Amino acid sequence: MPFSIQIVRCPKCNQPVYHAEEVPAAGKKWHKTCFKCGLCKKMLESTTLAEHDGNLFCKQCYARKFGPKGVGFGGGAGTLGMDTGEHLGNKSGSEMSNKPNYAPPPGASSHE
C-alpha cells in the first residue's frame, strides 16, 4: 500500500494549511491570516469566535447578524410598543401622562 499524505485545505482560501500555520476551529483548520471575522475582518481568537454555516464571525458581528431581534435587542426606539397593562388589571384611560404628578410648590396656582 503506497503512503499518501492528506493535504488539509483552508476553508477560507482553499490553499494547503501546514501544521506550523494552522488554527483549528469549527472542526476545520485555518491559516492564521484567514482566521478572521467574515464581516468586520477582525482577527479572531478562540474566545471571540462564533461559527455559522461554516463561516467565522466575531461575537459582536454574529449577534448583529444572527441574534434575536426586537425590543431590547438593538431594534431602536422605533420598535418599542406601549403596553397599557390591561392584562394586569389596568383600565383603559388610566395611562400615564408625561406631566409630573407631584404637589405644586407653595403659592403656585394649581390651574393649568
Which value, in Å, is the CA radius of gyration?
A: 28 Å
Query: Largest sheet at a glance?
Result: 2 strands, antiparallel
**Secondary-structure class:** mainly beta
Main sheet: strand order: 1-2
Order of helices and strands: EEEEH
Strand runs, count: 4
> What general form does the structure show?
elongated
Q: In angstroms, what separates the terminal alpha carbons?
A: 98 Å
Report the total helices. Answer: 1
Fraction of residues in β-strands:
5-15%
Q: What low-confidence regions span 5 or more consecutive residues with pLDDT below 50? A: none
Describe the structure in your own words:
The chain is mostly beta strands. The protein is 7% helix and 14% strand. It has one helix spanning 59-66; strands at residues 22-25, 28-31, 49-52, 55-58. The strands form two sheets. Strands 1-2 form a two-stranded antiparallel sheet. The termini are far apart. The mean pLDDT is 76.
Brief descriptors of the model:
mainly beta; single chain; two-stranded antiparallel ribbon; 14% strand; 112 residues; 4 strands
